[in-house]
Specification:
alpha+beta; 2 helices; 5 strands
Protein backbone atom coordinates (compact mmCIF):
# COMPACT_ATOMS: atom_id res chain seq x y z
CA UNK A 1 0.00 0.00 0.00
CA UNK A 2 1.21 3.51 -0.82
CA UNK A 3 2.45 5.59 2.11
CA UNK A 4 0.15 8.56 1.42
CA UNK A 5 -2.87 6.26 1.19
CA UNK A 6 -1.96 4.54 4.48
CA UNK A 7 -1.57 7.90 6.25
CA UNK A 8 -5.02 8.95 5.04
CA UNK A 9 -6.85 5.69 5.74
CA UNK A 10 -5.27 5.33 9.18
CA UNK A 11 -6.35 8.92 9.90
CA UNK A 12 -2.87 10.01 10.87
CA UNK A 13 -3.41 12.74 8.25
CA UNK A 14 -6.82 14.10 7.22
CA UNK A 15 -6.33 14.29 3.44
CA UNK A 16 -4.27 12.30 0.96
CA UNK A 17 -3.08 15.50 -0.71
CA UNK A 18 -1.76 16.70 2.65
CA UNK A 19 -0.03 13.35 3.18
CA UNK A 20 1.68 13.75 -0.21
CA UNK A 21 2.80 17.29 0.67
CA UNK A 22 4.26 16.12 3.99
CA UNK A 23 6.16 13.33 2.23
CA UNK A 24 7.49 15.75 -0.41
CA UNK A 25 8.71 18.11 2.34
CA UNK A 26 10.59 15.27 4.10
CA UNK A 27 8.40 15.38 7.20
CA UNK A 28 7.58 11.66 7.02
CA UNK A 29 10.23 9.01 7.58
CA UNK A 30 9.76 5.31 6.96
CA UNK A 31 12.12 3.04 8.91
CA UNK A 32 14.38 6.00 9.62
CA UNK A 33 14.67 7.27 6.04
CA UNK A 34 12.73 10.07 4.32
CA UNK A 35 9.98 8.50 2.21
CA UNK A 36 8.07 9.61 -0.86
CA UNK A 37 4.28 9.37 -1.05
CA UNK A 38 4.40 6.37 -3.40
CA UNK A 39 6.69 4.28 -1.19
CA UNK A 40 5.24 0.93 -0.13
CA UNK A 41 4.25 0.40 3.50
CA UNK A 42 4.22 -3.06 5.07
CA UNK A 43 3.27 -4.48 8.46
CA UNK A 44 6.03 -3.92 11.01
CA UNK A 45 7.31 -0.71 9.40
CA UNK A 46 8.00 2.29 11.63
CA UNK A 47 6.71 5.71 10.61
CA UNK A 48 7.93 8.97 12.13
CA UNK A 49 6.05 12.20 11.46
CA UNK A 50 7.69 15.48 12.47
CA UNK A 51 4.72 17.85 12.61
CA UNK A 52 5.38 21.44 13.75
CA UNK A 53 6.07 21.00 17.48
CA UNK A 54 5.21 17.30 17.67
CA UNK A 55 7.03 14.09 16.77
CA UNK A 56 4.83 11.04 16.35
CA UNK A 57 6.32 7.57 15.95
CA UNK A 58 4.06 4.63 15.11
CA UNK A 59 4.50 1.01 14.12
CA UNK A 60 2.26 -0.35 11.37
CA UNK A 61 0.26 -3.30 12.72
CA UNK A 62 -2.07 -3.93 9.78
CA UNK A 63 -2.90 -2.52 6.38
CA UNK A 64 -6.47 -1.46 5.61
CA UNK A 65 -8.07 -3.54 2.88
CA UNK A 66 -10.65 -0.90 1.94
CA UNK A 67 -11.85 2.57 2.86
CA UNK A 68 -14.44 0.98 5.13
CA UNK A 69 -11.72 -0.38 7.42
CA UNK A 70 -10.73 3.20 8.25
CA UNK A 71 -13.59 3.13 10.75
CA UNK A 72 -11.14 1.69 13.29
CA UNK A 73 -7.84 3.47 12.63
CA UNK A 74 -6.39 2.55 16.03
CA UNK A 75 -6.19 -1.08 14.93
CA UNK A 76 -3.87 -0.20 12.04
CA UNK A 77 -0.97 1.19 14.06
CA UNK A 78 0.56 1.34 17.53
CA UNK A 79 1.89 4.62 18.90
CA UNK A 80 5.51 4.16 19.97
CA UNK A 81 6.22 7.79 20.92
CA UNK A 82 4.24 11.03 20.90
CA UNK A 83 6.34 13.91 22.16
CA UNK A 84 6.44 17.68 21.97
CA UNK A 85 9.47 19.14 20.23
CA UNK A 86 10.67 22.67 20.82
CA UNK A 87 11.39 24.62 17.66
Amino acid sequence: MRLDLFLKRSRLVKRRSLAKELCDEGVVRLNGKPARAGHSVAEGDELILDLRNRRLAVTVIALPDSAASAARPGELYEVVADERVEE
